[in-house]
Design goal:
6-stranded mixed β-sheet, alpha/beta, Penicillin-binding protein 1b fold, 16 strands
Amino acid sequence: EKDSSVNEEIDKLRLRTTSSLLARNDVIVVASVSCIYGIGSPEDYKGMLVMVEKGEIINRQTFLTKLVDIQYTRNDFDFARGVFRIRGDIIDVYPAYEEFAYRIEFFGNEIDSIKTINPLDGKTLNTHDKAIIFPAKHFVTTSDKLNRAIETIRIELEDQLKLLRSQNKLLEAQRLEMRANFDIEMMQEIGYCSGIENYSRHISGRKPGEHPYTLMDFFPKDFLLIIDESHQTVPQIRAMYNGDRSRKETLVDYGFRLPSALDNRPLKFDEFEKYINQAVFVSATPSDYELEKSGGAVVEQIIRPTGLIDPEIEIRPIATQIDDLIAEIKERTAIKERTLVTTLTKRMAEDLSEYLQTAGINVRYLHSEIDALDRVGILRDLRLAEFDALVGINLLREGLDLPEVSLVAILDADKEGFLRSYVSLMQTAGRAARNVGGKVIFYADRITDSMKKTIDECKRRREKQVEYNKKAGITPKTIYKTAEEIMRSTAVADIRKSIPKVAEVPVFYGDKLSREEVLERLEKEMRVAAANLEFEKAALLRDEMKRIKSEKIK
């Protein structure tokens, strides 16, 4: 099985999103590129909802059966999301996507009242004439469709087992047979199984290769799609299918999944495009694709409310770049401003950081091997003046709002390539645009096409911004945040500090704890941590288990 735990809060929000999209029109959804992954049929999801009205005549047992069919479970003691409980003629239902629960009171077979209650203390919040309860999971379907799906799964299983055995893959065949039969049994008994999305093609009745249902299918046809940082997001969407396919083919080859699992996939790019009715691409550096699709309908957002203008760009020789950089950083440090420096390689970033430290500069470096939470902490420390200069590679680009930074230095700017392309240079230079005294230095011995394009574009924008400020009487002003505001906006970095490191567990044998007992104890702790939503701690415990398992028995 996969080493993962579903974050209940994320699951709740996903369910709330789909239920809101089907129930109303005034919905704004913020999603990552994962929105092109399959999540089940909207027709089945909507068709399985349970709607009750005050005064409605409905058999109580029929109502309970409907709740079970949409993956709600009965638990009279632990009232949690996706659960219902029964107390005489009162049925409480806790929707998997809400903060409140429904209390439905029966008088015989008639619904006497419908209320929303606080799940913790049971106090009434409001009374209603009707209630709509959406399924507790995305992959739900009718019993007829499920039975048909089970039959087609069995046929595919039989064919795949024959193929594996003909290739002398006996272990893979045994693994697949056990897993698939267990999943079938679970679907027959409770209508659901772990990893049911891998059978989604059978459940929805799609043909092999047909695109899956995704979040996009839940939107009305006239929805507006806004793709932020489109120069990065569009290539990501293009790449999702091939990456997923490669991983799934390995699972199929080794008997972990049936070939139909390949159809539980993200959309191909051409499939994604068919969903787009009206779209807005948002980017400071749009690619040819966005410009072509927009058909010339481009709106530039050059003027900033703060009056801040794009930074000036200077070109200086590479031969003296380090000495010149040190002088520039010290000049910024003297007026309590910070500096960003970008290099071409991780090794260069580390070596430059060490050299700058010997020159008396308080500096740190940032690269892809540094944990995401630690990166947030490093950027926060830069803003709080814990250090004065930050050296990085390709991470100092989109989305970094650092008004304290007044200088961006780009080393070896004339080394044309991915890290010194027009998009990279433009995005990196933009990090100095939050400060009224922002400046960018290109250290280069020649002017590449990318450099020229970046310099020309910044100059064009500056001229428009300066002209507008003069007409409107605006004085550019840097918007600084207080230390408290910075701490609050980067609170995620504190998660790492609150997680104790897992101490190495001594592995004893003989009359003390055996290796298996140590693993068993760690697994229990991991499950407790996951149940308490302490996922970082659970991951550390899991890694410790992997380390012990990898050790050879001495």
